[in-house]
Known about the structure:
This protein is an alpha/beta fold. 50% of the residues lie in helices and 11% in strands. The protein folds into two domains: 6-179, NAD(P)-binding Rossmann-like Domain (Rossmann fold); 188-324, Orthogonal Bundle (N-(1-d-carboxylethyl)-l-norvaline Dehydrogenase, domain 2). Strand 7, helix 6 and strand 8 form a beta-alpha-beta unit. NADPH dihydro-nicotinamide-adenine-dinucleotide phosphate (NDP) is lined by residues 11-16, 34-36, 39, 52, 80-83, 85, 89, 106-109, 138-140, 279, 281.
Amino acid sequence: xxxxxxxxxIGGGAWGTALALTAARAGREVRLWARDPGxxxxxxxxxxxxxxxxxxxxxxxLAATGSLDEVxxxxxxxxxxxxxTTRAMLAALKKTGKVRGPVVLCAKGIEQSSGKLxxxxxxxxxxxxxxxxxxxxxxxDDVARGLPTAVTVAANSAKTALSLCEALQSPCFRPYAxxxxxxxxxxxxxKNVLAIACGAVVGRKLGASAQAALxxxxxxxxxxxxxxxxxxxxxxxxxSGLGDLVLTCSSSQSRNFSFGLRLGEGFMASELIxxxxxxxEGAYSARVAVKLARKHDVEVPICExxxxxxxxxxxxxxxxxxxxxxxxxxxxxxx
Length: 335
Ligand SMILES: NC(=O)C1=CN([C@@H]2O[C@H](COP(=O)(O)OP(=O)(O)OC[C@H]3O[C@@H](n4cnc5c(N)ncnc54)[C@H](OP(=O)(O)O)[C@@H]3O)[C@@H](O)[C@H]2O)C=CC1
Ligand SMILES: O=C(CO)COP(=O)(O)O
C-alpha cells in the first residue's frame, strides 16, 4: 500500500474524536463520521465534542459528517464505535461499496454473541480488507489534550503496520508497529474486565496491596489466555497488554475502573447497567472472555468472578471470599 494521505474515522465518541485529532496533528486529511447530528454540528461549528470530551476545544479543524459514504473511501479507516457494534458498522461500510484501505479496529472487546475477536468479525464482514488493530494505554481525554501517549498499531504485514504508524505519528503520539494482530486485541479486551475487579477492590477500601495483587494475578490471566491463543510474549508485556492493564487498573479516569468502584461501594451491576451511564466495555466482555478461556482450557478466576458480579449480582464480599478461598496454586511452573 502507498502512503496514507486520508484517514476516515468511524465513531464520534471520546476515542473516535481523539483519534481524529491525532491523525489531523499527524498531517493527514481527516473525515470523521458520527451518527449523532448534534455531535457532527458541534465538531464542525464549535471545534468541540461536549458530550464526550467536555471542556476541550480543538486547535484542529475536523471535517465531521453523518454520511458513511463520505468517509468509507479514505486511504485508511479507524473503526472506533463500541465493540458490540462492530459487526453492524462493518456491514454498513460494506454497503457503501467504497472501502479500499485497511480497517483499523480501535474498540476493545470480544463479540458477545459469537465469542469472536473483532479481527475475525472483520474478516467475515469485509473479506479481503486488510485488518489493523490500535490498542494501548491511552485515555481519550489525555490524547485529545495532546498529552504524550504511546500505543501499539498491528497489521498482518510490517509494511502496513509501519504505514499506519507513520500516518498517525506526531510529537505527542508515538505508535509502535507490530504484526501480532491477535495478541494486540487480547490485552485490550481483558484489561477492561480486570479493571472492573481492581475498581471494586478500591471501592470496597481493601487496600493498595490487594489492588497490586489483583493487577499482577490479572496479568497472569491475560498472559495465559494470550499465550494459549498464540499471542507473542512481547505483545503481552508491551503497551497493549501490561501497559494498558496497569493504566486501567490504577486510575479512576477509566470508565471500567469507575464501574468497578461503584460495585465496590455496594451498587449492584444490574442497577448500574440499567441506569445507563458511561461505556464500560468490560461489563459486556466478561462472560464471553470466560467462555473463550474455557475453550482454550485456561483458568481465569478473576474474570470469572467479575462475570458473576455482572450477570448474577454477586456482591463484592462474596466475590472476595470466592477468590481468597480458592485452592492454593503455584506461581511458577514445575511446582
Ligand atoms: N475513551 C477512551 O479513552 C478509549 C476508548 N477505547 C475504546 O474505543 C471504543 C469506543 O469508546 P469511546 O469512543 O470512548 O466510547 P464513547 O461512549 O465515548 O462513544 C461511543 C460512540 O459510539 C457511537 N455509537 C454507539 N453505539 C453505536 C451504534 N450502534 N452505531 C454507531 N455508533 C454507535 C456513539 O454514538 P452516539 O453518541 O450517537 O450514541 C458514540 O459516538 C471502546 O471499545 C473503548 O474501549 C480505546 C482506547 C481509549
Ligand atoms: O482503554 C482505555 C485506556 O487505554 C480507556 O479505558 P476505559 O474504557 O476504562 O475508560
